[in-house]
């Protein structure tokens, strides 16, 4: 029914929407997904104002375009929403016993902002009309394989038509708008919690690595809530910083679609020695000799936990 309603509507009066993210790759800060939507007749205004891939714009230009969206927010202009997941939540989800991949987390965020858009558009629907009937197309910057991502979204939102493409933020102005929403919000969140000393936040940035080293806690991993402790960069930093070795149950490392490695996760079937904060490492030759465990609680015996007198 929703598809039929869209076909009968006038194209210029239907909405187009765009989705993009900011902060998928960095080792610092959260990941933000943004969505923007407007009537197709208004989209030309986005293009004429210079909306483009947020990564290609200066911070000043992004703020200018964000102000334009705020000033023109509403039914006659452009509207937007966002969903942010902090660094610790990302790390926790990726290292949990029922761990999630970064792609799964990103899909959940995408679904949440789509649902928020539909709720807002639902307020503009005529009685008995579905919100999806107001939307022509949703353009999405690709996540992994474009066809697979499109099929996942279509299965969750069968009333919507999705176009999933690489570099969609440079092709469709409404995706550029979503890209700016996500980028501006992430930058503001990062600036509120960190100084310029953190660098870009990307694993290859030497300033970022230097800052990470300054935040090491030899027992708990990292002091700052900005750190995504599930990133392989963190493992390397902890190993070089002499973090305290801890022995616990965990399973093998697994590589994420963005080539970020998970370096610990609970799984009672295997054992491995780890550095403080969860970094995998072989057992130390100085580890205490194993005791018989006689007289100790079953919790400690079953896990072969040992008493030690020095780190």
UniProtKB/TrEMBL annotation:
InterPro entries: RNase_H2_suA, RNase_HII/HIII, RNase_HII/HIII_dom, RNase_HII_hlx-loop-hlx_cap_dom, RNaseH-like_sf, RNaseH_sf. GO terms for cellular component: ribonuclease H2 complex. CDD domains: RNase_HII_eukaryota_like. GO terms for molecular function: metal ion binding; RNA binding; RNA-DNA hybrid ribonuclease activity. Residues 14-243 form the RNase H type-2 domain. It holds the Pfam family RNase_HII. It catalyses: Endonucleolytic cleavage to 5'-phosphomonoester. Transmembrane segments: none annotated. Residues 272-297 are annotated as: Disordered. A divalent metal cation binds at residues 20-21, 141. GO terms for biological process: DNA replication, removal of RNA primer; mismatch repair. Keywords: Endonuclease, Hydrolase, Metal-binding, Nuclease. Its EC number is 3.1.26.4. Its cofactor is Mn(2+); Mg(2+). Manganese or magnesium. Binds 1 divalent metal ion per monomer in the absence of substrate. May bind a second metal ion after substrate binding. Coiled coil: none annotated. Endonuclease that specifically degrades the RNA of RNA-DNA hybrids. Belongs to the RNase HII family. Eukaryotic subfamily. This is Ribonuclease. It comes from Chloropicon roscoffensis.
């Amino acid at each position: 029914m929703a598809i039929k309603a869209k076909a009968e509507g006038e194209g210029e009066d239907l909405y187009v929407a765009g989705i993009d993210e900011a902060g998928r790759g960095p080792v610092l800060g959260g990941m933000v997904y943004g969505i923007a939507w407007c009537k197709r007749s208004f989209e030309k205004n986005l293009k004429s104002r210079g909306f483009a891939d947020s990564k290609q714009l200066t911070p000043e230009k992004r703020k200018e375009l964000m102000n334009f969206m705020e000033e023109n927010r509403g039914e006659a202009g452009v509207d937007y929403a966002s969903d942010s997941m902090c660094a610790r939540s990302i790390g926790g989800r990726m290292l949990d016993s029922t761990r999630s991949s970064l792609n799964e987390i990103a899909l959940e965020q995408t679904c949440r902002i789509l649902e928020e858009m539909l709720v807002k558009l639902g307020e503009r629907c005529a009685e008995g009309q579905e919100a999806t009937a107001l939307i022509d197309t949703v353009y999405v910057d690709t996540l992994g394989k474009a066809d697979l991502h499109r099929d996942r979204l279509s299965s969750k939102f069968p009333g919507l038509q999705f176009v999933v493409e690489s570099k969609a933020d440079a092709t469709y102005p409404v995706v550029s708008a979503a890209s700016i929403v996500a980028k501006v919000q992430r930058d503001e969140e990062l600036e509120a919690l960190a100084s310029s000393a953190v660098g870009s936040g990307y694993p290859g940035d030497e300033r970022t690595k230097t800052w990470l080293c300054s935040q090491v806690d030899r027992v708990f991993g990292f002091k700052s809530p900005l750190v995504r402790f599930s990133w392989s960069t963190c493992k390397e930093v902890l190993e070089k910083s002499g973090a305290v070795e801890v022995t616990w149950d965990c399973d093998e490392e697994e590589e994420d679609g963005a080539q970020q490695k998970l370096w610990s996760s609970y799984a009672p079937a295997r054992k491995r020695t780890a550095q403080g904060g969860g970094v995998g490492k072989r057992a130390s030759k100085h580890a205490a000799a194993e005791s018989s465990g006689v007289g100790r609680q079953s919790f400690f015996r079953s896990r072969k936990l040992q008493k030690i007198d020095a780190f």
